[in-house]
Amino acid sequence: MRVIVTGGAGFIGSAVVRHLVLDKGYEVLNIDKLTYAGTLSSLASLDNQANHRFLQADICDRNAIQEAFDTFRPDRVMHLAAESHVDRSITGAADFVQTNVIGSFTMLESARAYWNTLAGDAKAAFRFLHVSTDEVYGSLGENGLFTETTPYDPSSPYSASKAASDHLAKAWTRTYGLPVVVSNCSNNYGPYHFPEKLIPLVILNALHGKSLPIYGSGSNIRDWLYVEDHARALDLIAERGAIGETYNVGGRNERRNVDVVTRICELMDKFRPQGKPHSQLIEYVADRPGHDARYAIDATRLETELGWKALENFDTGIEKTVRWYLDNEWWWQPLRDGYDGRRLGLLQGEVPKKS
Ligand code: NAD
Ligand code: TYD
Protein backbone atom coordinates (compact mmCIF):
# COMPACT_ATOMS: atom_id res chain seq x y z
CA MET A 1 0.00 0.00 0.00
CA ARG A 2 1.48 3.35 -1.10
CA VAL A 3 -0.02 6.40 0.58
CA ILE A 4 0.55 10.13 0.13
CA VAL A 5 -0.16 11.94 3.41
CA THR A 6 -0.26 15.75 3.34
CA GLY A 7 0.33 17.70 6.56
CA GLY A 8 2.22 14.76 8.06
CA ALA A 9 4.52 16.99 10.12
CA GLY A 10 1.51 18.45 11.97
CA PHE A 11 -0.41 17.20 14.99
CA ILE A 12 -2.90 14.74 13.47
CA GLY A 13 -0.91 14.10 10.29
CA SER A 14 2.13 12.93 12.27
CA ALA A 15 -0.09 10.52 14.27
CA VAL A 16 -1.46 9.19 10.96
CA VAL A 17 2.04 8.79 9.50
CA ARG A 18 3.35 7.03 12.62
CA HIS A 19 0.36 4.66 12.49
CA LEU A 20 0.71 3.87 8.77
CA VAL A 21 4.50 3.46 8.86
CA LEU A 22 4.95 1.62 12.16
CA ASP A 23 1.69 -0.30 12.68
CA LYS A 24 0.57 -0.94 9.09
CA GLY A 25 3.92 -1.15 7.29
CA TYR A 26 2.68 1.05 4.41
CA GLU A 27 4.97 3.02 2.09
CA VAL A 28 4.31 6.67 2.96
CA LEU A 29 5.22 9.86 1.11
CA ASN A 30 4.71 12.66 3.61
CA ILE A 31 4.22 16.07 1.96
CA ASP A 32 4.38 19.10 4.24
CA LYS A 33 5.39 22.75 3.83
CA LEU A 34 6.68 22.95 7.42
CA THR A 35 4.81 26.09 8.43
CA TYR A 36 5.04 27.26 12.06
CA ALA A 37 2.72 24.31 12.90
CA GLY A 38 4.81 21.58 11.30
CA THR A 39 7.95 20.07 12.77
CA LEU A 40 9.98 17.04 11.77
CA SER A 41 10.66 16.39 15.46
CA SER A 42 7.15 14.86 15.61
CA LEU A 43 8.49 12.17 13.26
CA ALA A 44 11.69 11.40 15.21
CA SER A 45 10.44 7.87 15.96
CA LEU A 46 10.54 7.15 12.19
CA ASP A 47 14.19 8.06 11.68
CA ASN A 48 15.26 4.56 10.63
CA GLN A 49 12.12 3.62 8.72
CA ALA A 50 12.81 3.03 5.01
CA ASN A 51 9.04 3.09 4.29
CA HIS A 52 8.76 6.80 5.23
CA ARG A 53 9.82 9.53 2.80
CA PHE A 54 9.45 13.25 3.42
CA LEU A 55 8.93 15.94 0.78
CA GLN A 56 8.94 19.59 1.82
CA ALA A 57 6.44 21.22 -0.55
CA ASP A 58 3.46 23.57 -0.58
CA ILE A 59 0.17 21.88 -1.55
CA CYS A 60 -0.61 25.00 -3.62
CA ASP A 61 2.43 24.26 -5.85
CA ARG A 62 0.81 22.34 -8.70
CA ASN A 63 4.09 21.30 -10.35
CA ALA A 64 5.63 19.91 -7.17
CA ILE A 65 2.44 18.07 -6.21
CA GLN A 66 1.89 16.64 -9.71
CA GLU A 67 5.46 15.40 -9.81
CA ALA A 68 4.99 13.76 -6.41
CA PHE A 69 1.93 11.88 -7.70
CA ASP A 70 3.58 10.86 -10.96
CA THR A 71 6.79 9.59 -9.38
CA PHE A 72 5.48 8.07 -6.11
CA ARG A 73 2.33 6.60 -7.77
CA PRO A 74 0.09 6.32 -4.70
CA ASP A 75 -2.77 3.87 -4.17
CA ARG A 76 -4.29 6.29 -1.71
CA VAL A 77 -4.13 9.94 -0.57
CA MET A 78 -4.88 11.20 2.91
CA HIS A 79 -5.13 14.99 2.72
CA LEU A 80 -4.64 16.70 6.09
CA ALA A 81 -2.44 19.73 5.30
CA ALA A 82 -4.25 22.88 6.43
CA GLU A 83 -4.07 26.04 8.44
CA SER A 84 -5.89 24.79 11.53
CA HIS A 85 -6.13 27.39 14.30
CA VAL A 86 -9.40 29.33 14.59
CA ASP A 87 -7.82 32.25 16.48
CA ARG A 88 -5.19 32.79 13.76
CA SER A 89 -7.92 32.69 11.09
CA ILE A 90 -9.74 35.60 12.76
CA THR A 91 -6.82 38.01 12.36
CA GLY A 92 -5.29 36.53 9.19
CA ALA A 93 -7.73 34.65 6.97
CA ALA A 94 -5.65 34.86 3.77
CA ASP A 95 -3.42 31.85 4.55
CA PHE A 96 -6.53 29.82 5.38
CA VAL A 97 -8.18 30.56 2.04
CA GLN A 98 -4.91 29.92 0.23
CA THR A 99 -3.95 26.60 1.82
CA ASN A 100 -7.34 25.16 2.76
CA VAL A 101 -9.23 26.13 -0.41
CA ILE A 102 -6.64 26.61 -3.17
CA GLY A 103 -4.34 23.94 -1.72
CA SER A 104 -7.18 21.39 -1.54
CA PHE A 105 -8.21 22.31 -5.08
CA THR A 106 -4.62 21.72 -6.21
CA MET A 107 -4.54 18.35 -4.47
CA LEU A 108 -7.81 17.30 -6.12
CA GLU A 109 -6.68 18.40 -9.58
CA SER A 110 -3.30 16.66 -9.25
CA ALA A 111 -5.02 13.50 -8.00
CA ARG A 112 -7.49 13.62 -10.88
CA ALA A 113 -4.76 13.99 -13.51
CA TYR A 114 -2.85 11.05 -11.99
CA TRP A 115 -6.01 8.91 -11.52
CA ASN A 116 -6.91 9.43 -15.19
CA THR A 117 -3.64 7.71 -16.15
CA LEU A 118 -4.60 4.58 -14.16
CA ALA A 119 -6.59 1.67 -15.52
CA GLY A 120 -8.38 -1.44 -14.30
CA ASP A 121 -7.97 -2.49 -10.66
CA ALA A 122 -5.55 0.34 -9.82
CA LYS A 123 -8.05 2.94 -11.01
CA ALA A 124 -10.95 1.26 -9.20
CA ALA A 125 -9.02 0.89 -5.92
CA PHE A 126 -7.64 4.47 -5.77
CA ARG A 127 -9.01 6.62 -2.92
CA PHE A 128 -8.63 10.28 -1.90
CA LEU A 129 -9.53 10.90 1.76
CA HIS A 130 -10.28 14.55 2.44
CA VAL A 131 -9.87 15.17 6.19
CA SER A 132 -12.12 17.83 7.68
CA THR A 133 -13.67 19.10 10.87
CA ASP A 134 -17.06 19.13 12.61
CA GLU A 135 -16.74 22.94 12.76
CA VAL A 136 -18.21 23.09 9.23
CA TYR A 137 -21.61 22.32 10.79
CA GLY A 138 -21.59 25.47 12.92
CA SER A 139 -22.83 25.57 16.49
CA LEU A 140 -25.26 23.26 18.31
CA GLY A 141 -27.72 24.36 20.97
CA GLU A 142 -28.05 22.47 24.25
CA ASN A 143 -29.34 19.31 22.60
CA GLY A 144 -28.69 17.23 19.50
CA LEU A 145 -25.61 15.94 17.70
CA PHE A 146 -23.97 16.58 14.33
CA THR A 147 -24.76 13.81 11.84
CA GLU A 148 -23.48 13.34 8.31
CA THR A 149 -26.59 15.14 6.99
CA THR A 150 -26.41 18.22 9.25
CA PRO A 151 -26.41 21.31 6.97
CA TYR A 152 -23.16 23.27 6.71
CA ASP A 153 -23.16 26.55 8.67
CA PRO A 154 -19.55 27.58 9.44
CA SER A 155 -18.80 30.50 11.79
CA SER A 156 -15.06 31.24 11.52
CA PRO A 157 -12.75 31.90 8.57
CA TYR A 158 -11.12 28.55 9.45
CA SER A 159 -14.35 26.54 9.36
CA ALA A 160 -15.60 28.42 6.28
CA SER A 161 -12.41 27.56 4.41
CA LYS A 162 -12.71 23.90 5.45
CA ALA A 163 -16.37 23.89 4.36
CA ALA A 164 -15.35 25.27 0.96
CA SER A 165 -12.78 22.50 0.53
CA ASP A 166 -15.32 19.82 1.56
CA HIS A 167 -17.65 21.08 -1.18
CA LEU A 168 -14.83 20.93 -3.73
CA ALA A 169 -13.99 17.37 -2.66
CA LYS A 170 -17.62 16.20 -3.04
CA ALA A 171 -17.97 17.97 -6.40
CA TRP A 172 -14.86 16.23 -7.72
CA THR A 173 -16.63 12.88 -7.21
CA ARG A 174 -19.96 13.99 -8.68
CA THR A 175 -18.47 15.76 -11.71
CA TYR A 176 -15.28 13.83 -12.47
CA GLY A 177 -15.88 10.50 -10.72
CA LEU A 178 -12.75 10.95 -8.59
CA PRO A 179 -13.11 8.42 -5.71
CA VAL A 180 -13.16 10.84 -2.77
CA VAL A 181 -14.29 10.12 0.80
CA VAL A 182 -14.72 12.93 3.38
CA SER A 183 -14.28 12.69 7.17
CA ASN A 184 -15.45 15.32 9.68
CA CYS A 185 -13.94 14.98 13.15
CA SER A 186 -14.40 16.69 16.50
CA ASN A 187 -11.62 18.34 18.56
CA ASN A 188 -8.50 16.21 18.90
CA TYR A 189 -5.99 16.22 21.75
CA GLY A 190 -2.89 14.23 22.65
CA PRO A 191 0.90 14.21 22.11
CA TYR A 192 2.61 16.54 19.58
CA HIS A 193 -0.21 19.13 19.69
CA PHE A 194 1.08 22.63 18.94
CA PRO A 195 0.82 24.70 22.16
CA GLU A 196 -1.55 27.34 20.80
CA LYS A 197 -4.60 25.05 21.18
CA LEU A 198 -6.50 24.95 24.47
CA ILE A 199 -5.21 21.71 26.01
CA PRO A 200 -1.43 21.95 25.37
CA LEU A 201 -1.49 25.70 26.06
CA VAL A 202 -3.08 25.15 29.47
CA ILE A 203 -0.72 22.30 30.39
CA LEU A 204 2.40 24.37 29.59
CA ASN A 205 1.07 27.59 31.13
CA ALA A 206 0.22 25.66 34.31
CA LEU A 207 3.71 24.16 34.35
CA HIS A 208 5.24 27.64 34.04
CA GLY A 209 2.91 29.31 36.58
CA LYS A 210 1.33 31.49 33.86
CA SER A 211 -2.33 32.43 33.59
CA LEU A 212 -4.78 29.88 32.14
CA PRO A 213 -7.05 31.90 29.83
CA ILE A 214 -10.68 30.79 29.52
CA TYR A 215 -12.58 32.60 26.77
CA GLY A 216 -15.96 34.05 27.82
CA SER A 217 -17.82 32.10 30.49
CA GLY A 218 -16.03 28.78 29.87
CA SER A 219 -19.36 27.07 29.20
CA ASN A 220 -18.61 26.37 25.52
CA ILE A 221 -18.57 22.63 24.85
CA ARG A 222 -16.22 20.60 22.67
CA ASP A 223 -16.32 16.83 22.01
CA TRP A 224 -12.76 15.60 22.64
CA LEU A 225 -11.11 12.70 20.78
CA TYR A 226 -7.66 11.27 21.49
CA VAL A 227 -5.54 11.79 18.37
CA GLU A 228 -4.50 8.14 17.95
CA ASP A 229 -8.17 7.10 17.85
CA HIS A 230 -8.62 9.61 15.02
CA ALA A 231 -5.59 8.25 13.14
CA ARG A 232 -7.03 4.71 13.25
CA ALA A 233 -10.42 6.01 12.11
CA LEU A 234 -8.86 7.78 9.12
CA ASP A 235 -7.04 4.64 8.00
CA LEU A 236 -10.31 2.70 8.25
CA ILE A 237 -12.30 5.32 6.34
CA ALA A 238 -9.64 5.49 3.60
CA GLU A 239 -9.73 1.69 3.33
CA ARG A 240 -13.45 0.96 3.58
CA GLY A 241 -15.37 4.24 3.28
CA ALA A 242 -17.92 4.50 0.44
CA ILE A 243 -17.02 6.82 -2.44
CA GLY A 244 -18.64 10.26 -2.28
CA GLU A 245 -19.74 9.74 1.33
CA THR A 246 -19.03 11.49 4.63
CA TYR A 247 -18.06 9.86 7.93
CA ASN A 248 -18.28 11.76 11.21
CA VAL A 249 -15.58 10.93 13.79
CA GLY A 250 -15.97 11.64 17.51
CA GLY A 251 -15.47 10.00 20.87
CA ARG A 252 -18.70 10.94 22.69
CA ASN A 253 -16.69 12.96 25.21
CA GLU A 254 -18.36 16.34 25.53
CA ARG A 255 -16.81 18.66 28.07
CA ARG A 256 -17.26 22.35 28.98
CA ASN A 257 -14.00 24.29 28.53
CA VAL A 258 -13.93 25.19 32.22
CA ASP A 259 -14.15 21.49 33.13
CA VAL A 260 -11.30 20.63 30.76
CA VAL A 261 -9.08 23.29 32.32
CA THR A 262 -10.07 22.27 35.85
CA ARG A 263 -9.23 18.61 35.12
CA ILE A 264 -5.80 19.60 33.77
CA CYS A 265 -5.22 21.61 36.97
CA GLU A 266 -6.10 18.56 39.11
CA LEU A 267 -3.65 16.39 37.17
CA MET A 268 -0.95 19.06 37.46
CA ASP A 269 -1.59 19.19 41.23
CA LYS A 270 -0.95 15.43 41.29
CA PHE A 271 2.16 15.41 39.06
CA ARG A 272 3.65 18.80 40.09
CA PRO A 273 2.41 19.34 43.68
CA GLN A 274 4.83 22.26 44.22
CA GLY A 275 2.57 24.44 42.00
CA LYS A 276 -0.65 23.53 43.87
CA PRO A 277 -3.43 24.60 43.44
CA HIS A 278 -2.96 25.25 39.72
CA SER A 279 -6.63 26.33 39.47
CA GLN A 280 -5.58 29.65 41.05
CA LEU A 281 -4.03 30.48 37.64
CA ILE A 282 -7.41 30.36 35.84
CA GLU A 283 -8.37 33.71 34.31
CA TYR A 284 -11.61 34.52 32.45
CA VAL A 285 -10.74 36.65 29.41
CA ALA A 286 -12.55 38.35 26.51
CA ASP A 287 -14.52 35.92 24.39
CA ARG A 288 -13.47 34.75 20.91
CA PRO A 289 -15.38 36.56 18.12
CA GLY A 290 -17.90 34.15 16.57
CA HIS A 291 -17.28 31.58 19.33
CA ASP A 292 -19.38 28.45 18.65
CA ALA A 293 -21.29 27.31 21.76
CA ARG A 294 -21.24 23.55 21.36
CA TYR A 295 -19.91 20.81 19.09
CA ALA A 296 -20.89 17.15 19.51
CA ILE A 297 -20.57 14.29 17.04
CA ASP A 298 -22.82 11.33 16.34
CA ALA A 299 -20.30 8.70 15.18
CA THR A 300 -22.89 5.92 14.73
CA ARG A 301 -22.17 5.50 11.02
CA LEU A 302 -18.43 4.99 11.56
CA GLU A 303 -19.07 2.64 14.48
CA THR A 304 -21.75 0.49 12.85
CA GLU A 305 -20.73 0.48 9.17
CA LEU A 306 -16.95 0.40 9.58
CA GLY A 307 -16.63 -1.09 13.09
CA TRP A 308 -14.53 1.73 14.61
CA LYS A 309 -14.45 2.33 18.35
CA ALA A 310 -12.51 4.90 20.37
CA LEU A 311 -10.00 3.21 22.70
CA GLU A 312 -9.51 6.22 24.99
CA ASN A 313 -12.11 8.17 26.93
CA PHE A 314 -11.42 11.72 28.07
CA ASP A 315 -10.25 10.70 31.55
CA THR A 316 -7.66 8.20 30.29
CA GLY A 317 -6.61 10.35 27.33
CA ILE A 318 -6.11 13.60 29.25
CA GLU A 319 -3.98 11.90 31.90
CA LYS A 320 -1.76 10.35 29.19
CA THR A 321 -1.53 13.74 27.48
CA VAL A 322 -0.50 15.69 30.61
CA ARG A 323 2.14 13.06 31.39
CA TRP A 324 3.43 13.21 27.80
CA TYR A 325 3.95 17.00 27.96
CA LEU A 326 5.72 16.71 31.31
CA ASP A 327 8.03 14.00 29.89
CA ASN A 328 8.75 15.58 26.49
CA GLU A 329 10.15 19.06 26.98
CA TRP A 330 12.63 18.33 24.12
CA TRP A 331 9.65 18.43 21.74
CA TRP A 332 7.74 21.49 22.95
CA GLN A 333 10.50 23.81 24.17
CA PRO A 334 11.69 24.86 20.66
CA LEU A 335 8.06 25.53 19.64
CA ARG A 336 7.41 27.49 22.82
CA ASP A 337 10.54 29.59 22.07
CA GLY A 338 8.86 30.59 18.78
CA TYR A 339 5.37 31.08 20.24
CA ASP A 340 5.13 32.00 23.92
CA GLY A 341 1.40 31.42 24.41
CA ARG A 342 0.27 35.03 23.94
CA ARG A 343 -3.43 35.64 23.15
CA LEU A 344 -4.31 35.33 19.45
CA GLY A 345 -7.45 36.20 17.51
CA LEU A 346 -8.76 39.33 19.19
CA LEU A 347 -10.20 42.07 17.01
CA GLN A 348 -9.55 45.72 17.79
CA GLY A 349 -12.52 47.27 19.59
CA GLU A 350 -15.76 45.50 20.37
CA VAL A 351 -16.32 41.79 19.97
CA PRO A 352 -19.28 41.23 17.58
CA LYS A 353 -22.33 39.59 19.16
CA LYS A 354 -23.54 36.29 17.69
CA SER A 355 -26.94 36.62 16.00
P1 NAD B 1 -1.71 21.27 12.34
O1 NAD B 1 -1.85 22.74 12.21
O2 NAD B 1 -1.14 20.68 13.57
O3 NAD B 1 -0.86 20.71 11.11
C1 NAD B 1 -1.05 21.15 9.80
C2 NAD B 1 0.15 20.70 8.97
O4 NAD B 1 -0.08 21.14 7.62
C3 NAD B 1 1.46 21.32 9.42
O5 NAD B 1 2.48 20.32 9.49
C4 NAD B 1 1.79 22.35 8.34
O6 NAD B 1 3.19 22.54 8.13
C5 NAD B 1 1.11 21.74 7.12
N1 NAD B 1 0.75 22.74 6.12
C6 NAD B 1 0.10 23.91 6.33
N2 NAD B 1 -0.01 24.59 5.16
C7 NAD B 1 0.54 23.80 4.21
C8 NAD B 1 0.72 23.95 2.80
N3 NAD B 1 0.30 25.04 2.14
N4 NAD B 1 1.33 22.94 2.12
C9 NAD B 1 1.78 21.83 2.77
N5 NAD B 1 1.66 21.66 4.09
C10 NAD B 1 1.05 22.64 4.81
O7 NAD B 1 -3.18 20.70 12.05
P2 NAD B 1 -3.91 19.41 12.67
O8 NAD B 1 -4.56 19.79 13.94
O9 NAD B 1 -2.98 18.26 12.64
O10 NAD B 1 -5.05 19.19 11.58
C11 NAD B 1 -4.84 18.36 10.45
C12 NAD B 1 -6.11 18.30 9.63
O11 NAD B 1 -7.18 17.77 10.42
C13 NAD B 1 -6.58 19.66 9.12
O12 NAD B 1 -7.09 19.49 7.82
C14 NAD B 1 -7.69 20.04 10.10
O13 NAD B 1 -8.63 20.89 9.48
C15 NAD B 1 -8.28 18.68 10.42
N6 NAD B 1 -8.93 18.56 11.73
C16 NAD B 1 -8.30 18.98 12.87
C17 NAD B 1 -8.92 18.79 14.11
C18 NAD B 1 -8.23 19.19 15.39
O14 NAD B 1 -8.82 19.09 16.48
N7 NAD B 1 -6.98 19.61 15.38
C19 NAD B 1 -10.17 18.20 14.18
C20 NAD B 1 -10.79 17.78 13.00
C21 NAD B 1 -10.15 17.95 11.79
P1 TYD C 1 -9.13 25.41 20.38
O1 TYD C 1 -8.18 24.47 21.03
O2 TYD C 1 -8.60 26.65 19.75
O3 TYD C 1 -9.98 24.55 19.33
P2 TYD C 1 -11.30 24.97 18.45
O4 TYD C 1 -11.43 26.44 18.46
O5 TYD C 1 -10.95 24.44 17.10
O6 TYD C 1 -12.45 24.28 19.10
O7 TYD C 1 -10.21 25.86 21.45
C1 TYD C 1 -11.00 24.90 22.14
C2 TYD C 1 -11.99 25.67 22.99
O8 TYD C 1 -11.27 26.34 24.03
C3 TYD C 1 -12.75 26.76 22.24
O9 TYD C 1 -14.08 26.82 22.75
C4 TYD C 1 -11.98 28.04 22.58
C5 TYD C 1 -11.47 27.77 23.97
N1 TYD C 1 -10.16 28.37 24.33
C6 TYD C 1 -10.03 29.02 25.56
O10 TYD C 1 -11.00 29.15 26.34
N2 TYD C 1 -8.82 29.53 25.89
C7 TYD C 1 -7.73 29.43 25.07
O11 TYD C 1 -6.63 29.95 25.42
C8 TYD C 1 -7.87 28.75 23.82
C9 TYD C 1 -6.70 28.62 22.88
C10 TYD C 1 -9.12 28.22 23.50
Description:
This protein has 355 residues and is an alpha/beta fold. It has a domain of 243 residues: Rossmann fold (3-Layer(aba) Sandwich), CATH 3.40.50. 41% of the residues lie in helices and 15% in strands. It has twelve helices and 13 strands. Strand 1, helix 1 and strand 2 form a beta-alpha-beta unit. Helix 7 runs parallel beside helix 9. The longest helix has 22 residues. The chain is globular and about 65 Å long. The mean pLDDT is 97. It binds nicotinamide-adenine-dinucleotide (NAD) and thymidine-5'-diphosphate. Thymidine-5'-diphosphate binds next to helix 7 and strand 8. The site of thymidine-5'-diphosphate has 12 residues, from helix 7 and strand 8.
List the helices and strands and how they pair.
Blueprint: E1 2-6, H1 11-23, E2 27-32, E3 52-56, H2 62-72, E4 76-79, H3 86-91, H4 94-115, H5 120-125, E5 127-133, H6 157-176, E6 180-185, E7 188-189, H7 198-207, E8 212-215, E9 221-223, E10 225-226, H8 227-240, E11 246-249, E12 254-256, H9 257-271, E13 282-285, H10 300-305, H11 314-327, H12 329-338
Parallel strand pairs: 1-2, 1-4, 2-3, 4-5, 5-6, 6-11, 7-10, 8-13
Antiparallel strand pairs: 9-12
The protein binds nicotinamide-adenine-dinucleotide and thymidine-5'-diphosphate.
